[in-house]
Amino acid sequence: MTADAVRVLVPVGMLGGGFPPDSVARARELGADVIAVDAGSTDSGPYYLGAAAAKTARAAVARDLRLILLAARDAGIPVIVGSCGTSGTDAGVDWVAAIAREIARAEGLALTIARIYGEQDPAALLPLLEAGRIRPLPPAGPLDAGTLLGCSHVVGVLGLEPIAAALDAGANLVLAGRATDTALIAAVPLMRGRPAGPAWHGAKIAECGGLCTTNPGGAGVLVTFDHDGFTVEPLDPAAACTPLTVAAHMLYENRDPFLMREPGGTLHAAGARYTALDPRTVRVEGSAFEPAAQYTTKLEGATPAGFQTTTLVGIADPRVLARLDEFRTRVLRYLTNGVVRDLGLAPGEFDLQLRAYGHNALRPAGAAVPVAPPAEVGLLFTSTAADQATATEIARYANPVLLHAPLPGASALPSYAFAGSPAETERGQVYQFTLCHAVDVGAPDELFRTELEEIR
């Protein structure tokens, strides 16, 4: 253990995902200076931001957070949690804070909690839009006032500065709204004067815990930062970090394996050298960070996109499966025409989808397809409309067709298999992402506010 080392323990890729208790219980033994963990993502789609709802089970979050807080108390180190409540809304921060209070009281923990809020009032962003300070991030297009005001929830994605300020204010538990995964890990090393290149690079490698190891579903990692680079090692004794597993993580959710944009600048990793110190530990040196001329905050927003009802039907008839694309095209055409004719809806008032799971449902358009027909498929019918009643009425209208639709030339009426009774499942309000934009700010904390509370 070198005197200039700063060690960050990352127990899991997402709070509530679960990890072995002993992997964090060793925080003091490992010499960890902070425990950092992400609690959210946009991976699961726009619903969680649009509805300000958590993806993870409350009991799972409480289980993970309890283990982390107990390990931090034993080691006398702070805990940083980012993107609380999945999407980082104010409600998500309050949700995790309530869990933390329950744990503190049950376990007799003394906590100074910093709640960093980053949800934005769309109307308050209009002056920034009108001033030309909001611009799109590819592949998003230019933003207009109507789109902005139509968002149900908008969050700003914070960098490390509000986190560092909260720690300086005495917080030993930082609960942040939507944040870059890397900011949680890079904050303490940068506060302690470690160079920005290795700090941001090591944070990127460790952001998903054990994903940069040979056992991505196991425990997390410990990242050690010094003045020349960083070292990463797994918390799972049976796992290993190799130059391949570590370097490959620069491609995770990143278009360019050598560049990564942060609110305050860009990480350059083209000159990084990955060296195996032993069979389980990797050393990285040569990363650089270029500060941006203009500090930016990313905005994420979701807009209501109607209501949905789904129906799942299984088909094993080899005659239909041999002509499945033709079957789907005919069914969709028949139902689209029927909804207009019999239900009186205009084409723009509804949307129908029919995906064949088990037969190219996930392949991009134009991709090569298997020659042989599948043994069976699950056809997922989805109707979207302005209200739930209409979406369900469309699905019920489709029910007889999905159950008995024949192919041309069939001599008997077929029957397929619905997954349940009733066949229709109401999904409720659905959302779409409409904001992926950056706003030029005068200070890193311009769009954020922090509240401190003491639990004794």
Task: Give me the secondary-structure topology.
Elements: E1 6-10, H1 21-25, H2 27-30, E2 34-40, H3 47-50, H4 58-75, E3 79-86, H5 90-107, E4 111-117, E5 119-120, H6 122-130, E6 134-136, H7 145-149, E7 153-157, H8 161-168, E8 173-176, H9 181-191, H10 196-206, E9 221-225, E10 229-234, H11 243-248, E11 259-262, E12 265-268, E13 273-278, E14 281-285, E15 288-291, E16 296-315, H12 318-321, H13 324-342, E17 350-357, E18 377-385, H14 388-404, E19 417-418, E20 424-440, E21 449-455
Parallel strand pairs: 1-2, 2-3, 3-8, 4-8
Antiparallel strand pairs: 1-9, 4-21, 5-7, 6-20, 7-16, 9-10, 10-14, 11-12, 12-15, 13-14, 16-18, 16-19, 16-20, 17-18
Helix pairs in contact: 4-5, 9-10
Structural class by helix and strand composition = alpha+beta
Shape: globular
What percentage of the residues does DSSP assign to strands (E)?
25-35%
Mean pLDDT: 96
The total number of structural domains is 2
Question: What does the radius of gyration come to?
Answer: 25 Å
How many helices? The count is: 14
The number of distinct β-strands equals 21
Main sheet specs: 10 strands, mixed
Low-confidence stretches: none
Write out the strand line-up for the largest beta sheet, numbering strands in chain order.
13-14-10-9-1-2-3-8-4-21
- What is the end-to-end distance? 33 Å
